[in-house]
Write a structure and sequence with these properties.
- The complex is a heterodimer of chains A (362) and B (291).
- Chain A is mainly alpha-helical and 362 residues long.
- Chain A has helices at 2-17, 21-37, 59-84, 91-107, 120-144, 149-167, 194-212, 215-224, 226-231, 236-262, 274-284, 296-315, 323-338, 340-361; strands at 45-48, 54-57.
- In chain A, strands 1-2 form a two-stranded antiparallel sheet.
- Chain A is globular and about 75 Å long.
- Chain B has two domains: 26-149, Response regulator (Rossmann fold); 152-286, Rossmann fold (3-Layer(aba) Sandwich), CATH 3.40.50.
- Chain B has helices at residues 2-22, 27-38, 59-71, 88-101, 117-125, 152-164, 183-198, 214-227, 239-252, 271-278, and strands at 46-52, 78-84, 105-108, 129-134, 146-149, 171-177, 202-209, 233-236, 263-267, 284-286.
- Chain B starts with a helix and ends in a 5-residue tail after the last strand.
- Classes of the chains: A mainly alpha (362), B alpha/beta (291).
- The interface between A and B is large, with 51 and 54 residues.
């Protein structure tokens, strides 16, 4: 019996060591809390929306829907974190810039056009270019001028929303074409939110990139030791730069969803504080915020967990201005558990416990 | 060393770029202002310092700013400078600058009601006339010449009285609040809170702040829909948030508007919001003054 116990313990230890342990535990805790509080949380119903098309609804769908932007941002943020050992705090502001550029193209500088002035795909490509330019700006400062990522991105964090407002002359244009709303809502006849497909597409793309290119390997190498990776023929400056450009692309996709949700923009509040959630997603995935090794899936899972947490807190009728405080508690717990002191202590405790179990077996 | 110098140049370029961006909104007004100063001796432009909230805060503020700019320009005989902030301390710093510049008038829409006494006393000592617009402050009325502000309490009361007049047998209200502590939020929340406390058939389903943010309002309403709690009124403290709430209702297939299941109430009377009223998708919109 005791032998079995020690075997179980070994497995448990292996699992605890796994990076997916923390996000997994978080999901279990959230699921149990919701199950106890109200099992209807997990109910998904097929209904009709006001346009008369079938749509799925329920808290789980809400999590998948609203977690999409965050999951997409988490992809880019994970790469930036791994390569540069720092975070981009300007993603919210650059979403405003990319979204504003998109609306400028769609509405042609007119606040209330009768029809869209350019195809949506053109507007989206422009937004991608703008997002990547912002990424290049950040990447240049970090990779070539060796500025701390948080300081470098502070520039766009501060100035970004003013730039976004300036792109549209401080107007708040409204997109007249109902097709534009599909990206942040539902395609008629498709009961699953479009955002889920967009997020899935991004996840598949990054999965293929990580599988068939050396991006993942190079990024980790640069993050662990930049100079030794250079000695091995990797250009650390370019890899860091590239990670910011990829994040810029992710920002453009997230901007499409954000702007599409309401077919308009509000520069000062769109995607407000989303950078913190994106960084939290990376941390929740158990990735070291100081760079190096990363697990993309854990970050993406982390993003959905944050939305799970947000939805749960809304469900419990927690004051929405207090949400940040609850997230802060999560961050504190995470940081404490990943601190070397605490980890050492836990592994020492585990060692002390393991020999005892062995002795028992003998 | 070379790198360091380069970084220094880069940093100064950045700082320069930053200020350029920060002022982009007011660029139109500052350029002619510089000209005006040069010829101040000959012409008789009235110097005005205008302190407002961020024009991007809401559709209301954008229209308000546009109106001010249309009025206070050189063509109309004003040398106007604009500064924007949602933070009280930054607004006070701007006011001190205007006092040092020796403006004739100071127009003020305060971010917060408190903390204005000392700077307004300085203005008074310098012979500057202060006019409050849109938002009121807690200061002695001798410190300002005029106060042209929205009566938020009345606005809230009018909305609640209208709602009471609808004669529903039961009021289950989703109350979406603005930024907590702002005069607009206090006035619009106050009237509803009092009514809910007084009447037994008025219930608050949920009371949350969406901080004037449409997207947050959408999520709040979505969470109520997911929870399956019945409601028949959405009382959103501005148009943007009402729009977000309606987006959630549309996705869930809940009918709203005149004669439908859910009453939609907004504030500010943006043009697009009035169009929603015309289409009978919304029921009520409270009016503020710049339109």
């Amino acid at each position: 019996m005791s032998k079995k116990k020690s075997g179980g313990l070994g497995k448990l230890k292996g699992f605890v060591g796994n990076q997916l342990f923390i996000p997994f535990i978080a999901i279990v805790i959230l699921a149990v809390v919701n199950l106890v509080h109200d099992p209807a949380f997990f109910k998904v119903v097929l209904g009709l929306n006001n346009a008369g098309y079938p749509v799925l609804s329920g808290s789980l769908i809400t999590i998948l829907d609203y977690g999409s932007e965050l999951a997409i941002l988490a992809i880019g943020m994970t790469l930036v974190t791994a390569a540069s050992g720092g975070q981009d705090i300007s993603v919210g502001a650059t979403i405003a810039i990319a979204g504003s550029a998109m609306l400028r193209v769609l509405c042609g500088g007119n606040t209330r056009p009768d029809t869209i002035q350019a195809p949506i795909i053109v507007a989206f490509i422009v937004a991608c270019i703008v997002g990547m330019l912002c990424g290049m700006f950040n990447g240049m400062l970090v990779a070539y001028f060796k500025i701390q990522p948080m300081i470098a991105t502070l520039i766009l964090f501060t100035a970004g929303r003013s730039i976004a407002a300036w792109i549209n002359n401080n107007e708040l244009p409204i997109v007249p074409d109902p097709k534009f709303a599909y990206f942040g809502g539902f395609i008629p006849g498709m009961p699953v939110p479009t955002t889920v497909f967009i997020a899935a597409a991004c996840i598949i793309v990054i999965a293929l990139v990580l599988k068939f290119t050396n991006l993942g390997l190079y990024t980790q190498a640069v993050g662990i030791n930049g100079s030794s990776s250079r000695l091995n023929g990797i250009n650390p400056t370019f890899i860091k730069f590239l990670s910011f450009v990829i994040l810029g692309l992710c920002v453009a996709v997230a901007a499409l969803i954000k702007v599409s949700r309401l077919s308009t923009i509000n520069y000062s509040v769109i995607a407000k504080d989303i950078e913190m959630d994106a960084i939290l997603a990376v941390a929740l995935g158990g990735n070291a915020l100081s760079g190096g090794k990363f697990n993309m899936w854990a970050s993406i899972l982390g993003a959905y967990i944050i939305q799970f947490l947000t939805t749960t807190l809304y469900k419990f009728n927690v004051k929405s201005d207090a949400l940040a405080a609850y997230k802060a508690v999560v961050v504190i717990i995470l940081v404490v558990f990943s601190a070397p002191v605490v980890r050492d202590y836990i592994s020492r405790m585990a060692k002390r416990f393991a020999p005892a179990a062995k002795k028992e077996a003998a | 060393m070379k790198k360091r110098i380069l970084a220094l140049i880069m940093a100064s370029v950045m700082v320069f770029g930053l200020t350029a961006c920060g002022e982009s909104g007011g660029a139109e007004s500052t350029a002619p202002a510089a000209d005006a100063q040069a010829e101040a001796g000959t012409s008789s432009l009235i110097k005005v310092g205008i302190i407002n909230n961020d024009p991007n805060e809401s559709g209301y503020r954008t229209a308000n700013d546009k109106d001010l700019k249309a009025m206070f320009n050189e063509a109309n005989g004003y040398d106007a400078k604009f500064s924007y902030s949602l933070k009280n301390d930054e607004q006070i710093a701007a006011a001190q600058n205007y006092i040092a510049d020796g403006v004739d008038y100071l127009l003020l829409s305060a971010a917060d009601t408190a903390g204005w006494d000392s700077v307004l006393k300085d203005a008074q000592a310098a012979g500057i006339k202060v006019i409050l617009f849109d938002r009121t402050i807690d200061a002695d009325s001798s410190l300002y010449e005029a106060s042209i502000v929205s009566d938020m309490a009345k606005e809230g009361q009018t909305a609640v009285d209208w709602l009471a007049g609808q004669g529903l047998s039961e009021y289950n209200v989703i109350h979406i609040q603005g930024v907590m502590g702002s005069a607009a939020q206090q006035g619009r929340s106050g009237a509803l809170d009092a009514k809910v406390a007084a009447e037994s058939n008025w219930n608050i389903v949920t009371q949350q702040t969406a901080e004037w943010n449409a997207e947050k309002a959408q999520q709040i309403v979505q969470s109520v829909i997911d929870a399956g709690t019945p409601f028949n009124v959405i009382y959103a403290e501005n148009d943007d948030m009402a729009k977000g709430a309606v987006a959630a209702l549309d996705a869930a297939g809940i009918s709203h508007g005149v004669g439908k299941d859910v009453i939609i109430m907004g504030f500010d009377c943006n043009k697009w919001a009035l169009e929603e009223l015309l289409k009978q998708n919304w029921n009520y919109d409270g009016q503020c003054n710049p339109f």
